[in-house]
């Protein structure tokens, strides 16, 4: 599947410019949102580091379908706005190879995380009761008035 280069440019720009996302989970007819720092790979998989026993972790263990918002909250109303909305599934980063890859991405983006973890495998540290999670996006809607014009957005579906 070939994706328009302007859509890719928009998504990469928004992901690079921002560091926080809003993660929305759902369980028993009750929505729940939280914020998390994220990193991402070339396939637009997002990785977050989270403590265990949180409300969102309990929710995703029961229902791993999530939605995500990423935007700069300092944008001025009426300016050329940018942000993205996405849906996907979230899972615990599993095997050592994936944990090392995701851990390196996270450390590169947030070097101060090395105060808590000594190496990429440390993200699944029992002392801190934390884990790295992977959000595999299946749909991304990018709202980028700088690239597409006022009020314009584009959607892509990932397989």
Blueprint of the fold:
Layout: H1 5-17, E1 20-27, E2 30-40, E3 46-51, H2 55-62, E4 65-71, E5 82-92, H3 96-109, E6 130-144, H4 145-148, E7 153-157
Antiparallel strand pairs: 1-2, 1-4, 2-3, 3-6, 4-5, 5-6, 6-7
Descriptive report:
This protein is an alpha+beta fold and about 160 residues long. It has 4 helices and 7 strands, in the order αβββαββαβαβ. It has a single domain, classed as Pnp Oxidase, Chain A (Roll). About 25% of the residues lie in helices and about 40% in strands. A 6-stranded antiparallel β-barrel has the order 1-2-3-6-5-4. Strand 2 (about 30-40) and strand 3 form a beta hairpin. The chain is globular.
Q: What number of domains?
A: 1
CATH homologous superfamily heading: Electron Transport, Fmn-binding Protein, Chain A
Q: Major β-sheet, in short? A: 6 strands, antiparallel, barrel
Helix content: 10-25%
In the sheet with the most strands, the strands line up as 1-2-3-6-5-4
Count of helical regions: 4
CATH class: Mainly Beta
Cα-atom radius of gyration = 16 Å
The arrangement of helices and strands along the chain is: HEEEHEEHEHE
**Secondary-structure content class:** alpha+beta
Question: Could you tell me the mean pLDDT?
Answer: 94
Number of separate strands? 7
Residue share in β-strands: 35-45%
